[in-house]
Amino acid sequence: MTGVHRRVAITGLGLVTPLGNDAATTWNALLAGRSGIGEISIFDASGFPAHIAAEVKGFNPHLAIDDRKLLKFTNRSHAFALAAAEEAMRDAGIWPARGSETRWGCVVGSSMMGMEFAELGEVHRHCGPDGEFHVERLLTDRITADPMVFCRIQPCTGLALLLRRFGIRGYANSVHTACASGGQAVGSGMKLIRRGTADWVLAGGFDSMITPIGLAGFCLLGALSLDNETPERASRPFDATRNGFVLGEGAGFLVLEEWEAARRRGARIYAELAGEGNSLSSYRITDSHPSGDGPIQAMHQALANAGAPLDAVDYINAHGTSTPMNDRSECTAIRAIFGPQACKIAVSSTKSLMGHLIAAAGAVEAAICALAIRHGILPINANLREPDPECDLDFVLGGPRVMRTGVALSNSFGFGGSNSCLTFRNPEEAPG
Amino acid sequence: MMPTEISKDEIMAVYPKVAQTMADALGCDVEQVVLNVPLIEGLDAESIDFLDIIFRLERAFKVKIPRGKIVEDARGDLPEAEFERKGYVTEVGLQRLREHLSEVPADRFRSPMKVADIPRLFTPETFCKVVVRALRAVQAETAGVLGSGDAREAKADG
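The joint structure predicted for all components is written out below.
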C-alpha cells in the first residue's frame, strides 16, 4: 500500500456546538448568523469578570447516546464527543465491522482539562488548616474514592470511550496541543490513511472548559472578552474594537476515508482532505509572534502538502479568536504568504458566532470548511463593524457568501505555540 | 454472636435498592437485575464495575465494604495457601466457595477454577448478602455488641 499516493475523502460529519446539537442545525445557525453566546448557565458565574460563554444547549446525553453503561465514564465533553462521533459515523454510512475494525483508526484533540471543579474541591477539603494532606480521609471520601471519578479524569478517557463505542481496533492517538488539537487530530488522521496504516479514521476534537477553573484561568490570562452586557457582540474577530475571545464548548468529528474505497462504495464526499501543515512557534507560551512566524510555516506546509498553488485558495476559515494579538498576527501571516493576492481570498472566523471551542475548535472548523465546499456557501465573520487597518482582508460580512470554493484552508493555533493548518479541496477538482 | 445464616426475608429487604444500584452501575434496566443472574455472563459486568458496585452500595446503604470482602469471607479461617495454588482455587477452597455462595447453583463451581474467575459466580443475591452482613455489622456496633474497627469506621462514614 505504501508508495502509492493514497488520497483522503471526508465522508461523514458530526457536530455538537453552541449553535446546535448536530451538523445541520449548526450549519443553518451559521448561515442565519445566529449567535450561540449568552450568560453562563452551567454554574453561577456572576462573580467572574467574564460571565458569558457559548454553551451547548439542551443536550441530553441519554438521548444522544444509546449506551448507558458508557455514560457513567463520561464527563461533559466526552458526551459531546460520543454524540458528534456517532452522527459522523451515521452520516458516512460506514462502521467498523468484523474484518474491517483493525483498518479503522481514531485520532482526537482532547479537552485541555480533565479534572472538574467539584473533584478538586473535594481534594482541597482534605488539606487541613495546617496544610497537611489527609490521605486516609481522601481515600474514603464520597467523591474522591469513587472509582468512576478516576476513570473520568484521565486525559485518554474520551479516546478510550470512542474506541469502545465504535469497536475501532486499528490505531489511536490523542492530541494535546490546546487550541491546535482538533486541527492536528484531523491532519494526523489524514496521514494515517495516506501512509496505509488505516483505511478509515474517525478524527475530531472535544472540549468543555466552561467550568469555574477553566473560566478563572482564562480570566486571569486576560484572554476573554468582558463584554458581558452584549454577549452576541462580544466575539468580533478582526474588528478594531475586539477585546478577547469567548469561551465555547462542544465537539466535532469527521469520518476520513481512503479516496478510492469511498468512490467504490458510492459514498458522498464532502471534500478531499488534501493537506496539512504543522509548525511550532517556539516563541512565548501564550503570545503569538507579531510577524506571523509559526502560522506562516503551517500554512505554507499545508499548501505544499496538498500540491495547491497560492492562487487556488478561495476561502480561509481563520483561527480568528477575537483577541487583539491573534487576529493581527494571523492577518500578517496571511498577507506574508499570499501577498497582493491575499485580498482575493474570502476569510471568516466562525468563532464570531460560536465562540472558541478550544481543543474542539480545529475539528469543528474543519467540518465547517467541508460544508462550505459542499454547499458552495461561506459562513460570515459576524460582528465586524469597525475595520482594523492591520486586519485588511476580504472578510465575509453582512451575510453568507454564495461562492464555489475550490480550495479552503482552516487555521488553528494553540497555547504553547503549536500551529495547525488544514487544506480542503472541492471533490470536483480532486485529480483522478 | 450474630447468626451466619441469611434469611430470604433479609435478602428481599435489601434487594430492591441493590437492584437499582446495580442497574445504575451496569447501565441496564432494573428488571434485568434478577436475583440469580450471573453478573458477568448475564449483565456484561467488567472488573471496574465490581469496584463501582461496591462503592455505590456503600453509599446507598451507608455501610463499609472492604474490597475483596466476598472471597475473604468465603475463605474464612482457611489459610490463603490452602485456598488457592498457582492461581487456581483448591478443592477445599472450592468447597468453601460453594458454602459461602450458597445462592449459586452447584454446577457452576467447576474444577479447576481460576481465582480470577471467581467473580463469574457472583449474582445480585451475592451482593445482597454482602449488604446484609455489612448492615448487621453496623447494627451490632450501634448496639454495642461488637466494637470492631470496621464497624466503627462504617458508622463514622455514614
